[in-house]
Design brief:
The chain is an alpha/beta fold. It has helices spanning 10-23, 41-54, 73-83, 96-111, 124-132, 147-156, 175-190, 206-214, 229-234, 247-258, and strands spanning 25-29, 137-143, 166-168, 199-203, 218-222, 239-241.
Length: 261
């Protein structure tokens, strides 16, 4: 009779899978400015349209007047209401229609055009293909963008297949909550717990790094947005890369900041 756990046996396969899960790292990828170009005007127009439609008193204010770095869209809509003299502390469920209207407008704009599909930033597809095929990594998206708009952006740039889980800016009040939500969902999806030292937040702003650190993660700064390598390094990023074109260098940096084992 074969011994339990011998190579090729179900018990052995379970052991290998469990070991892989213990060694796996969770990578939380920011979207705008990190994987795709920052500053989509259609996105901004969709938010303004929804807020102006549902809250007419806000017609004199615009999301373009608000600082975007590290902000989640639920908080940004609250700020627009406050700037217009309305109650910015209204319950989350009263804000949901604004995100639904914005998402519908954004989706309709792109789906009615011939240039729906766009390329992400240089090196992104090659890197994600490499990471998705490597058992040492698990991927999740984390973005301050509202979920419906983010879904369209991921689909437009052919990135949706890489991110089976994530967290979005219409679900929480700040980016620290966003990180916590993304980790919780990823652990449920992948069926394992990720120790903080095995989690990396990847983003193009100091706020991306700081919010990851607040949740115990490491941080990889990516200077593809409005912040330089020097600024991201000074913000406390555990490692910084100028962009994502050198797949090998990015993978090495991720292994270095999350543990080589």
């Amino acid at each position: 009779m074969c011994a339990r756990g011998r190579a090729g046996h179900p018990g052995d396969e379970r052991t290998i899978r469990e070991r892989r899960l213990l060694l796996q790292r969770l990578l939380l990828f920011d979207l705008d400015g990190t994987l795709i170009e920052w500053g989509d005007p259609v996105h901004l127009d969709a938010i303004d349209h929804s807020v102006h439609t549902l809250f007419p008193a806000c017609s004199g204010v615009s999301v373009r007047q608000i600082e975007f770095d590290g902000r989640v869209q639920r908080r940004m809509v609250r700020e627009l209401l406050a700037r217009a003299g309305l109650d910015g502390s209204i319950p989350p469920e009263e804000l949901e229609p604004a995100f639904a209207v914005a998402g519908e407008r954004y989706a309709r704009h792109w789906e009615e055009r011939n240039d729906m599909v766009r390329d992400p930033l240089p090196g992104v597809h090659a890197l994600l293909e490499r990471l998705a095929g490597d058992d040492r990594f698990a991927l999740a998206i984390i973005t301050g963008t509202a979920s419906r708009i983010a879904e369209v952006k991921l689909r437009r740039h052919r990135l949706d297949r890489f991110f089976p889980t994530g967290a979005f800016g219409d679900e929480v009040e700040d980016r620290v909550e966003l990180v916590r939500l993304a980790i919780s969902r990823a652990e449920r999806h992948y069926g394992t717990s990720f120790p903080p030292g095995r989690i990396a937040a990847l983003g193009d702003t100091p706020h991306d790094i700081a919010c990851g650190h607040a949740c115990g993660t490491t941080g990889l700064g990516i200077a593809t947005g409005r912040h330089s390598v020097e600024t991201l390094a000074a913000s406390g990023a555990d490692a910084v890369v100028p962009d994502l074109t050198d797949t090998g260098a990015v993978v090495r940096a991720l292994l270095r900041i999350t543990g080589e084992g």
